Amino acid sequence: MNDLPSLPEGARIDGRYDITGLPLGAGVSGVVYPGVDPDGRELAIKILRSNLLVLPETVERFKREIHILGMLDHPHVVASYGSGTLPAGNLYLVMERVRGPSFADRLRKAPLAAGLAVGIVVQVLDALAALHQEGVVHRDLKPANILLDEGAGADFAKVGDFGLARPPTAEELPELTRTGDVFGTPHYLSPEQARGERVTPASDLYAVGVMLYLALSGELPFDGPAVDVMLAHMRDAPRPLADLAPGAPEAVVRIVMQALEKAPEDRPPSAATMAQALRDATPDLVVPAPRPTGPSVPALSRRSAVLATAACVGAVGLWLWSSAPAGSVRLTVVTEPPGGAAVVILLEGDEEIGRIPLEHTPAAVEVPRGMEIRIEGRVGARRGTMIGRADADGRWVVPMLQ
Hints:
- The chain has three domains: about 10-95, Phosphorylase Kinase, domain 1, CATH 3.30.200; about 105-280, Transferase(Phosphotransferase) domain 1 (Transferase(Phosphotransferase), domain 1, Orthogonal Bundle), CATH 1.10.510; about 300-400, Sandwich (Immunoglobulin-like), CATH 2.60.40.
- Helix content is about 25%, strand content about 25%.
- The chain contains ten helices and 18 strands.
- Strands 1, 2, 3, 4, 5, 6 and 7 form a seven-stranded antiparallel sheet that branches.
- A hairpin with a 2-residue loop joins strand 13 and strand 14 (about 350-360).
- Mean pLDDT is about 80; it is low at about 170-180, about 290-325, about 380-385 and about 390-400.
C-alpha cells in the first residue's frame, strides 16, 4: 500500500485517533483502519489513497460522503465522528465501527423467515426516511452496505457507504450527477438508474424491494451478466415472488412487488409509508429494541447521535439526535416507531419558560446553546422523558431517563 501513509498500530491521527491494528479492509479507492478515540469509542477510519488525489471527481465524492454523513444523525445510519486531512494530503473519514456481519452475509443463508427479513428492511427504510427528508438519495443500496450491529442487539441494521449518495446540493456538482452516467450495483439498480436518468427516493425503494425479494425467496429478481441484468430491470417483469416464497404473507409480497414497479410513481409513495405497510403486514415482525451506540454517550461530538433508551415497553422509545448551526443547537426528535407526538420544554433552572409542541415526528427544532430542555414523548399510554443541556460547544450533554 505505497499509495497510503504508513499507519502502524499505535499511530495517532490529528492527535486524537489512535490506530489499533491492521486494516479492516481495502478497496480501489481507500483502506479502512480500526481505531479508538480518547472517549474509548471504537472507530473505523477510512483513508483515501494518495494516487487518487489527482482525480477531482474521486476527491469530490469522498468529500461528499463526509458531508452527507456529517449532516445525518440516525440510529440506523453509520455514525460519523469527524474527518480531516493527513500530513501527506490523504483525506480521511472517522466513523463508528460496527461489529457484526453485513446483510449480505446473512443472506447467504437465505431465504429468511418473513419476520426476520422484514424486521431488517424496515430499519433500513427508517434510515431512508430520514435521508430522503434531508434531500439525500443513497443510490447504492445493497445488502453489503447494510451492517448488522451485534453490539446494539441482534440484527440492528445500520446503512453505510454513502460514496455514491446524491446530496441536496447535487446541482452544484454536475460532473458527479450528469444524466447518462450509471451509478450503483447492477443487481440493485432501478430502471431509471439503469437508463442513466436522474434518481429520486423511489430509486432507493426499488433497491429495497430487490433486497427483500432476495431475502424472502433466496433468489434475485434478475441475475446474469451485468448488461443483461440492467436490461432486465428496464424491460422485464420479475418472476412473481408468491411463486418463490409461498410462505411469505400475501400483503408483504404485494408491497415487494409494488416496490419493483418499473415506473417510480407506481412504487410506494415514501420510505416511511413502505415501512409502516410492512410493519402492518408482518405479524411476527422481529425488530430489536434501540440501544445507544458506543460506550461513552456523554462525550459525543456535536454531529454525533445522542441516543437514549426509552422508558417504554418493547421497541417503543424516544430518540434524539443533534447538530449545531452557529448560535443554536438543532435537535431532531423522533419517536420509535416514527410518527408519535412529543413536546420540547425550555427550562431556566427549574422554571419552565416555553414549550414547543411537536404533533408529528420526526420534527426538528432549534434551541439556544446552553439552554436546558426537557423532551417528553408519548406513545400509547407510555411516556419517555429525557432531560439534558446543549453545552457551549453545541454538544448535547448526556440525557437522563426520568
